Amino acid sequence: MGELDRQVPDGATARVAWETLTTEFPKLAEYTTVISCAVNEEYARFDRRLNDGDEVAFLPPVSGGSGDERCPDPGSRN
Amino acid sequence: MDHSITCGRQPGETSSGKDRDGAAGYTQKVPGIAETTPDRHTRGARFRITSDPLDAAATTAAVETAHCGAVSVFVGLVRDHNAGRTVIGLEYECYEPLAIKSFERIASEAEEYWPEVRLAIAHRVGSLQIGEASVAIAAASPHRAEAFAASRYAIERIKQIAPIWKREHFEGGDVWIEGATADPDNEDARRQAMARAQP
What we know:
Structural class of chain A: alpha+beta
Oligomer: heterodimer
Number of strands of chain A: 4
Helix content of chain B: 25-40%
Structural class of chain B: alpha+beta
Strand content of chain A: 15-25%
Distance between the termini of chain B: 41 Å
Mean pLDDT of chain B: 84
Number of strands of chain B: 10
Strand content of chain B: 25-35%
Radius of gyration of chain B: 17 Å
Low-confidence stretches of chain A: none
Largest interface: A-B, 39 and 51 residues
Order of helices and strands of chain B: EHEHEEEHEEEHEEH
Shape of chain B: globular
Mean pLDDT of chain A: 87
Strand order of the largest sheet of chain A: 3-2-4
Largest sheet of chain A: 3 strands, antiparallel
Helix content of chain A: 10-25%
Number of helices of chain B: 5
């Protein structure tokens, strides 16, 4: 987790904030199609308009919990 | 590279690894069911992110009431292999405020399907060794069918929408494991979780 303060234009959306970051950190661009975003600690859409002081989080694909399921479906076991 | 970026105002502690609820958490000995009091059903006790070892009994105690005929407890462990690799350990990070809200959301979803079910979810962060518990889920219900189904539903939804990430350390390197793009409003994902909970 990293935290940065950045200025975006008035009325900018979360997507604009993301594009600001990918311009600054080009390696982030590979995540553009898979990230989620949250504004002020709630999930939000990328067209969400930002207000002064908003906290915007960009979230890579999540992987909490435990190991992935590997066994076949119960219905196909026999 | 940092694995997630926030910008804007500086939040309070997010993924510092410190236990969010501190003294309110269940790190002490678990009292018996008979000692159930209203303040045991606090948000802090039912939904937790902690860097301490998980205590499944405490997670269970957070949802037990006299109405329960069943509590289904799921504990996810760090396994010694993954995708053909020999795993040495896992490192979990989370965006804590949203993770707690995600757990609350999952519990609310479960209550829509099974109104009498109560869920408690605890997730560990930090470095975990093989065999240690990364997640503990307790689903309490008057009857066992709903308890089993809800605990399964919860782990599937955690993997879909909880902002938690794991880095796998294996023999020869390490890698961030990337699973689902988190989207709580994705109805297909929710249906898939339900299909696994109630085949």
